[in-house]
UniProtKB/TrEMBL annotation:
PANTHER family found in the cross-reference section: IRON-SULFUR CLUSTER-BINDING PROTEIN, IRON-SULFUR CLUSTER-BINDING PROTEIN-RELATED
InterPro entries attached to this UniProt entry: 4Fe4S_Fe-S-bd
Entry superkingdom: Bacteria
Protein name: Epoxyqueuosine reductase
Length: 231
C-alpha cells in the first residue's frame, strides 16, 4: 500500500509548492451535495495541493500582471491535477480530479452566487495547509494567501496532516473588510453579487480582468507569516 508521505513526495516532485492530505471524515460538516463523497462515493481521502503566485503582481499599478498570473497559475494547477490523477492511477489508486476554479453547476443568478462542487479553501484548511482569513482566503504560514489550490479525491485511507493552529487574522484586524471597495466582506463570508463586478471585470475588448484583489493585497500576511507581509 502506498504511503501518505510517498504520495506527497510525488506531488511535490510534479511541481506543487504545498501538499497535504485530509481524511474524508473531516468533511462531516460539508453542505449536502458538496461533500467529497457526493462527488465520488469511494472517496476516502482528499489530497490538497497548491502553487504560489508571484508576489510582486499585486503591487503593479495595472491589474494586467495579476490577471495574467492568476489565470496562468490556475491553468498550471489544473494540468497538475490531471497529472497527479494519472500518476496515482498507475499505482492502483482511484483518483478523481477537481477543477481549481470552474466549471461548476450550482448557480443562483438572482444573487450572482456560484458554488464549486468542492470548496478548495475549506479542503485546504481540513488538510492543514492554512487558516481561513476574514477575507475568506486560505492563509498559509509560508506563502500567505498568494496560492492557488487544487485537489484530487482518492479511494484509499491515508494518514491526514495536522490542522494548522497558527493565528492568521488578529481579532482586531479589519483591513480587508474596511478596504473592500464593494463592501462585500463581513469577516466570515463574501457577497459574490457585490464582489464579482470588480473581481471578474469585462472590459470593452471583452477580456475578463481581475480588476480588484484588495482583500488579498492589504492582508498583513499576504506573503506568509514569516516575512511580516513585506513585498
Amino acid at each position: 500500500m502506498i504511503s501518505s508521505n510517498l504520495i506527497k513526495e510525488t506531488v511535490i516532485s510534479l511541481g506543487a509548492d504545498l501538499c497535504a492530505i485530509a481524511p474524508v471524515d473531516r468533511f462531516a460538516d460539508a453542505p449536502t451535495g458538496f461533500h467529497p463523497q457526493d462527488i465520488c462515493s469511494d472517496c476516502r481521502s482528499v489530497l490538497v495541493f497548491a502553487k504560489r503566485l508571484p508576489l510582486a503582481t499585486i503591487s503593479a499599478k495595472s491589474c494586467i500582471p495579476y490577471t495574467f498570473a492568476n489565470s496562468a497559475v490556475t491553468q498550471e494547477v489544473d494540468l497538475l491535477t490531471l497529472e497527479i490523477s494519472r500518476s496515482l492511477e498507475l499505482s492502483g489508486i482511484g483518483a478523481v480530479p477537481i477543477p481549481s476554479d470552474d466549471p461548476y453547476e450550482h448557480w443562483e443568478p438572482n444573487r450572482s452566487y456560484g458554488r464549486a462542487i468542492l470548496s478548495l479553501r475549506h479542503a485546504g484548511y481540513l488538510a492543514g495547509l492554512g487558516i481561513l482569513g476574514k477575507n475568506t482566503l486560505l492563509i498559509n504560514d509560508r506563502y500567505g494567501n498568494m496560492i492557488q489550490l487544487g485537489a484530487v479525491l482518492l479511494d484509499v485511507d491515508l494518514a491526514g496532516d495536522p490542522l494548522a493552529i497558527y493565528e492568521a487574522c488578529p481579532q482586531s484586524c479589519r483591513l480587508c473588510i474596511d478596504s473592500c471597495p464593494a463592501g462585500a466582506l463581513d469577516g466570515e463570508t463574501v457577497n459574490q453579487h457585490l464582489c464579482r463586478p470588480l473581481s471578474i471585470f469585462r472590459n470593452e475588448k471583452g477580456y475578463l480582468l481581475k480588476k480588484c484583489y484588495e482583500c488579498r493585497a492589504v492582508c498583513p500576511h499576504f506573503a506568509g507569516l514569516e516575512n511580516g507581509g513585506e513585498r
